[in-house]
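## retry 2 of 3
previous attempt timed out at serialization; input unchanged, resubmitting
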Amino acid sequence: MAASDTWLVVGLGNPGPAYANTRHNVGQMVLDELATRASATFKSHKTNSHVAEGRVHPGAPKLILAKSNGYMNTSGGPVSQLLRFFSLAPAQLIVVQDELDIPFDTLKLKFGGGHGGHNGVRDIIKAAGTGDFTRVRVGVGRPPGSTDAADHVLKGFSAAERKTLPILIADAADAVELITTDGLTAAQLKFHTKSA
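## retry succeeded, writing output
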């Protein structure tokens, strides 16, 4: 199999049921959607992760979906181990993350760059030795008033947001699929111009 036919897709988040439905875990929610589409099941992996492998449809690239068993700010170790284990380059990595600086229900896709203050991305760049990977940034919005940003991302979504959340997760999963089949530029053209 050609290397470009395989992608490591990492959904950032924190472990355990207490965090499962928080804004910080939206990356892992997107991975659950992709696993469902690929009829893949997450299993414990020796890289301190849970991994599911599959294709969304016949002929599509192989997706290695991974969730670290550790906390968000220690995501780098498992990600670098996964890249080594599957013999993949950072350019074949897609990180799905929550993003405070993007309004809720908005996606921004990019390749490379800094961590933008996101501790999970910061740790991956440090461990991988490069920022040259693709990010699917899922907007969770800034907190209202004087709410602390760290508290905001560890809270659940509002009732109004929960109505739209399944669409946002589906869009993010679609974006991952499009990046792997048609490339980042095609995905950006579709999702950066999506009407609100």
